[in-house]
Amino acid sequence: MAPTTLRLASFDIGTDDLRWWAPELLDRYPDGFYTMHQQLFEAVCADSQPVDLGGAELEKVELIKYEPRNDHYPSDEELKSLDGIVISGTAAGAYEQDEWILRLQEVIRDYHQQQIKMSGFSFAPQILAQALGGKVDRNPPGTELSVVTIHLTEAAQQYFGTDRTAYAIHVHHNDGVTKLPEGAVSLGTSGVTEYLGWMLGGHILAFSGHPEYSRDPWILERMMIVERRDRLVSAQHIDYGLQALWNPTDYIWQTQQQFRFFLGQLRL
pTM, whole model, 2 decimals? Predict the structure, then answer.
């Protein structure tokens, strides 16, 4: 099998938040989430063998940056050259009525009709659900952060073709999907948040877990320190999360499954 290159659109919608939230992150990651994801994909691609990727030999993952907050999306011609879309996290809520959020939902519905592959982290399962008839709200159990164990549903085990029943990953969210879109299937739960990701057909795979934080937990540590300082999250909650922050995770496995998705190997 010839080596493969994935060309993915990076929908960076969270870097503007970092400028006021934790600007020191931009010293290490100058383009914010775009840089984080670029480094993540490069590292996991380099570490992966064909046996990890359903037999595919993945040579390179190319990310092309777009900024939906500025109404910057791929043209029709650019879309034809892409293998899919990766949506970043953000401090915004999928249920908010900002113009860029409503516009992003329109784009998602259009891509859904075209069966364009869409994936991403944290905000991604929320905005995808909100756009496609699901429901997003403040997470009923409250904020969930640091390393959690996601218990895979049987459907997710079949989808990924794995005997694995759970995996560990960093999360950071105040909101949650409370109702899945029609036809969507839950990826798994932590026992705190009901839906920590979901799948739909062969063109949507959305993760609540942040593999970019798992690769470099310092990112989330800086965010959590600000949240404690500004009393956005209780000090007790932050301190508890910091104790688990550097625990080992399975971010490489999650990222490999995302590669397999974009390679067309996964579908319900």
Answer: 0.96
